[in-house]
Amino acid sequence: MTRRQNTTTAEHRGLSAFPLLVMSVACLTWGSSATAEDCDSPCTVSRAGLPTFRLVNTVGGIPDWDLETSAFGVELARLSDSPNTGAFRVDHFAQSNTLVIGRFPGNVGIRTSVPEASLHIGSSFPSLRLDDTSFEGGRVDIVMSSNSLTIRGNDLQVGPPIAVIDTRSPLALRIDEMGNVGVGLFLPQAKLHVAGDARVEGNFSVGSRRTLKTAFSPVSSSEILARVTDLPVASWRYQSEGESTRHIGPFAEDFQRLFGIGDGETISVVDAQGVSFAAIQGLAQRLAEKEAEAERQLAEKDAQIAELAERLTRALAAQNAVLTARLAAIEERMALRERSSVERTAPAAAAAPLAQPKAQGD
Predict the structure, then answer these.
(1) Is 227 in contact with 278 (CB distance < 8 Å)?
(2) What is the pLDDT averaged over residues 232-245?
(3) What pLDDT score was predicted for residue 224?
(4) Separation CA 104–CA 227 (nearest Å)
């Protein structure tokens, strides 16, 4: 249903170019008891009920418009619009300077009498809501409070902020024309460039699959290990940190000098990990070589011990054979001596006279 049927259009088609011309101060009233004293502005229109101006176009295809007072405020709407859906409406209780179009071309002010930008919002807590009505939850609020600018999505009361920017610092956050994001600096040199500490309470992953890389070349893990041994490592703190803060690590200048990578200002996490892995491999290789050398030396010692044991066994066997022969010779001589003694005592026993028995009664 449209706002109302256009019953007056045909009546106005034949009017002259200026059917009504009001100059200086004029007061138009109808359907009301307004008097001349009620006309306190150059042009006052008074009508009982809800007064309406209708703008009728005599060119086909162009809609007619109503400027009317409704229960919701002053509304500019097409005749084809449904009630209270006009293109422009000012609430009856709108505050001062609700909407101001400034002298500078294109400047629009909201709650400010002198807009100084294309869109100038003046309020104790100015805010801007972007509401995508094509799907539920497609809402973003931009709110300024105190010295911060908060960008929050979906539920303003519950949802976490997308971003909070401290407006006291002009270098709080900047996104340049290349898409680089700088935090704490004006000219970011990377997709994310932070001047200060960065903290990640969770996993931090660096893309490292082979398909992302090119120009491969091998490295000598033993050489990397030797250079790591020469890399100065100290305890220190950044100049922007308090005296109680300490770090342990190398310096970018030494890292670039020894390994030929980096810019001499920073140490890439990828490069630091790569050098660490290569050094670990070099250390493992060195340990393997040490273990192989130790095993070789141990094998040599075992062979020497086995040879000495064999030589000792042979020497002992020979010595035992000599001792056994000597013992056999001694036993043989003792046996000969015993036989000789027996042979010498036997003839004497045979030559001795036998004793005669005595006669009975002697």
Answers:
(1) no
(2) 94
(3) 97
(4) 66
d(CA 267, CA 250): 9
Strand partners, 90: 74
Q: Starting from the edge strand earliest in sequence, which strands make up the sheet with 181-183, in order?
A: 174-175, 181-183, 192-194
- Taking each helix axis from N to C end, the angle separating 269-351 and 252-259, rounded to the nearest 10 degrees, works out to 70
CA distance 206 to 68: 63
Q: Which amino acid is at 330?
A: I
Task: Find, among 174, 148, 146, 151, the residue nearest to 162 by Cα.
Answer: 151
User: What are the sequence ranges of the domains in the chain?
Assistant: 1-94, 221-304
Sign, CA torsion 206/212/215/221: positive
The SS3 call for residue 311 is helix
Query: What are the Cα distances from residue 24, in Å, to 21, 30, 41, 346?
Result: 10, 20, 10, 189
Structure tokens at 309: 């044991």
DSSP state of 358: P
pLDDT tens digits, 115-139: 888 889 888 888 888 888 887 767 7
Q: What is the pLDDT of residues 15-38, one digit of tens each?
A: 444 455 545 445 555 455 555 555
What pLDDT does residue 198 have? 86
Question: Phi and psi dihedrals of 265, rounded to 5?
Answer: -115, -35
Calpha distance 76→84 (Å, rounded): 10
**Residue 124 per-residue DSSP state:** S
